[in-house]
Design brief:
184 residues; alpha+beta; Aminopeptidase; 9-stranded mixed sheet; 4 helices
Amino acid sequence: MITYGKVTLRARVDDDIAVLHRELYDDVATRVRADSRPWRPLTVTRSTYRADAAGEDTETFSVVEASSGELAGEAALWQIDTHNRSAHLAVAILPAFRGRGLAGDTLRALCEYGFTLRGLHRLQLETLADNEPMRRAAVRVGFRVEGQRRKSLWVAGEFSDDVIYGLLADDFAGDGAAQRADKT
């Protein structure tokens, strides 16, 4: 497990799947803003949140609020490229946990994992141009805007812009606050 600030990243367990599916996937209005793939009806048994649903180039985590131990969302490194030592980041916080600063702590924990434990050189995230909370969180962690793609994503019946952020290992201010908890 990796803990930073208010969050712990841990392996996905079976009990997480139904909650993530109900709270994040079945909320169609939010889901279509978070995934470039079209929403389609899926049962929990076919959920994209199953740990075995991820590809070999993806590492998925459940985000847990450190103080309460409650499931607060999901996080992932995806499109991990071991040759170029890069990956993309994804974060989704459950509605009841939004507005508490968990996204920024989750991003920092993912960076700690990617840079320190995986030895990656570059991390990237993309978000809709109007997703101000994620944009602020990315900048607080140290990500830099690398570009904007105009009208590149089909979102709920219209094209939307997305913004690309990047962070290099050399620029990551890993302040030692992320603790790896493998003390079993």
